[in-house]
Amino acid sequence: MRISINRNADTPIYLQIKNQLRDMIFSGVLPEDFLLPPERSLAKTLEVNRSTVIKAYQELKADGLVDSHVGRGTVILSQAAKKLSLMEGYINPLPWYQLFTESITSSNDTIIGDIMAMTGGDVISFAGGIPAPNLYPVKIMEEIQKELFQKNGQELFLHSPVEGYYPLRESISYLLRQRQQITASPKDVVVLSGSQQGLDFAARIFIRPGDTVIVEEPTFFGAIQIFRSAGARVIGVPIDNDGMRIDVLESLLVRHKPKFIYTLPTFQNPSGVTLSLERRYQLLNLAYQHQLPIVEDDPYGELYYGNTPVPPLKALDRHGYVIYLSTFSKALFLGLRVGWVAAPPQVLAKFAHLKQMTDLHVNTPAQLLLDAFIRRGDYERHIALLRQEYAERRNIMLKALEKYKIPGISWNKPEGGFYIWCRLPDNIVRHKLVANAGKRGVVFLPGEAFYPDGTQGDTHIRLNYTFAKPQQIEEGIKYLMQAVRETVAASSEQENKRNIKPLV
After folding, report:
1. Which residues pair with 35 in a beta bridge?
2. How confident is the model at residue 71 (pLDDT cuts 50, 70, 90)?
């Protein structure tokens, strides 16, 4: 057994001894049950301290390569199991769940992924917040893309600035000014991979584990997931027909001292409610009073079907308290994944820093494509088409709900956005309704997904009217109401059985 020591090496001597013995064990030079030299003897041979050899042997024992017995010494253990496992290609499964962070381990909600998987086959889906595929401006985009390849060539495949392609930021600034009354220069805008990334960045910038975030109740389930993953306690403020209850909010601000308020004030998801102008000013005044940022999520503001909605909070904010998020995903399509944030410079710097660390920049061809789409006037024409088409689909769903209505069910009439918020009969069992509707090929989103504590909303469902084709909407509502009627009847039958007293 030959061991060489390099006393000038950076590797500690005990590790040199251990590594060489390990290699001899693995190569078979030292067979099973081979008795290693006594620690004192090997130390004398190698001219090292005995404690050095002891430490090397301890390392080998910790690796399961040797074992020591009083009176017998240190022996080589069998490596047959290791050799067999390698020969047969078997490796012990990695215990992934022991390695995940606590915030990820505690979050098993796959609702967004489930919605994405519900859109194929013969299913009539009222579940997702997805624009109408048959209205995608494919031919126009194809024409623009051809022009871009001819004009820009290699530029399409180069990187873009972290903050976003500057001409697109100019176009977004134009849209904000002309259509939303928001004064924001191109430098006040950072392009993101959808507004969902903006929510993630806001959480990473502001939230520490244990912090509180105030949201509407109900609210967008994706925001609840993101804030909870950051370690926040999510507190809900109830809404009514005029939006968030500001009187309730005021007491919650004093009690919980949140890091920020998250709101979808225009055609809210899932309720479709719009925060009144009076309450918008009240909300801003509370934010100023408590020095509290507001994260305004506005993916549906362009999609109104009657009068122009009240201005966004960002347009009314004169003191730089509002962080404004929006996206092209609802007005165009989800696949491009392009959104933006407009915020004070200090906040934008943090967003840009996270963008750099996360994915460097948004897809370059998508940015150039959208910029050209806006500059040609195609965006405004497309929005006008969507308002007309989506209003028609909303009306078809409202008429179908009225036609097949059953006692105990009610709904709102949204003035814009994607959704009808439907109240079910009180005695309905939600999971049975999901199953009964599924048998008829209809899917929807249960209401409890939109509540922070998950214990409310079991008597509500969210119905999307933009994704299904117009001819499918009435059919889907008919089947859904059949499922509601069946579920209610079954619940009533079970209740009657429980109330029947046995004869004595």
Report:
1. 75
2. confident
DSSP 101: -
Classify residue 133: in a domain, yes or no. Answer: no
The residues near 209 (Cβ < 8 Å, ≥ 6 apart) are: 103, 230, 231, 232
Mean pLDDT, range 365-384, rounded to an integer? 96
Note if the bond before 12 is cis, omega within 30 degrees: no
Output the domain CATH number for residue 176: 3.40.640.10
Q: How many domains does the chain have?
A: 3
User: Kindly report the CA angle at 395 between 392 and 399, in degrees rounded to 5?
Assistant: 140
Is the full-model pTM beyond 0.90? no
User: Does any domain span residue 101?
Assistant: no
- Within 8 A by CB and 6+ apart from 392, the residues are 470
Which structural domain, as residue segments, surrounds residue 53? Answer: 13-87
In this prediction, residue 327 carries a pLDDT of 96
User: Which CATH number covers residue 435?
Assistant: 3.90.1150.10
Structure tokens at 368: 């150039």
pLDDT averaged over every residue in the chain = 89
pLDDT at site 114: 54
Alpha helix ranges (H) inside 207-276: 221-229, 246-256
Q: Is 122 helix (H, G, I), strand (E, B) or coil?
A: coil
Are residues 266 and 250 located together in one domain of the fold? yes
Judge if 339 and 403 occupy the same domain: no
From 348, 376, 404, give the residue that closes a domain: 376
**Is-contact 452 215, C-beta < 8 A?**
yes
